[in-house]
Amino acid sequence: MPTYVALLRGINVGKAKRVPMAELRALLSELGYSKVSTLLNSGNAVFNADMGTSAKLAHDISKAISSRLNIEVPVIVKSAQELTDIVAGNSLTFEEQDFSRLMVAFAQDPGTLAGLVAIEPLVVAPEQFLIGRNAAYLHCASGILESKAAAAMLGKIGKEVTTRNWATVLKLMALADAA
After folding, report:
1. Do 97 and 141 form a contact (C-beta atoms < 8 A)?
2. 56/108 same-domain check
3. C or N: which end of the chain has fewer Cβ atoms within 10 Å?
């Protein structure tokens, strides 16, 4: 049975859009998914499913969250293989201590990533930015809070994507590999 990673956008930030991870795990199990686990409190889940495409699973999860929790949450689902491809697609150079300063932008439809080109003029050296086939990568050498490019990716320009730092991406990949 294939393994997938679900990434919920914009939950558990402040008081709005609260999704307890125990409820998310229960919801995914009720949808018929197995080996459900979550990572952190920011809407990361790993599960096995034998039905549908990544896009269909994302739609089903978003619909279930809307009906059960009464909140609208964009959901992006990637297969374990897609996640592996995203990790392999990062050609930026950075040190291990910078794992929390490298943002990875995920989109359900890779064509959506083209809209992130608007971030390029905001990238200031030593920052690095790359739009890959399956994800976009932004290394904020001086920190995410100091980066205008990061603010844009987390704001209106990045409204069609969800981001995770590199450390979280690697942890999700390890969970997916273990499933």
Report:
1. no
2. no
3. N
DSSP-derived letter for residue 151 is H
Domain that holds residue 14: 3-82
Rounded Cα distance, 71 and 92, in Å: 36
Tokens 């910078």 map to which residue? 98
- CATH code, 100: 3.30.70.1260
CATH number where 47 lies: 3.30.70.1280
Burial of 57 (0-12, 13-18, 19+ CB in 10 A): buried
Confidence of residue 175 (pLDDT cuts 50, 70, 90): very high
113 with 135: CB under 8 angstroms? yes
Q: Comparing 158 with 90, which gets the higher pLDDT? A: 90
| 48-90 pLDDT per residue, tens | 998 789 999 999 999 999 999 889 999 999 999 999 999 999 9
| Cα dihedral 70, 80, 86, 13 in deg (nearest 10) | 30
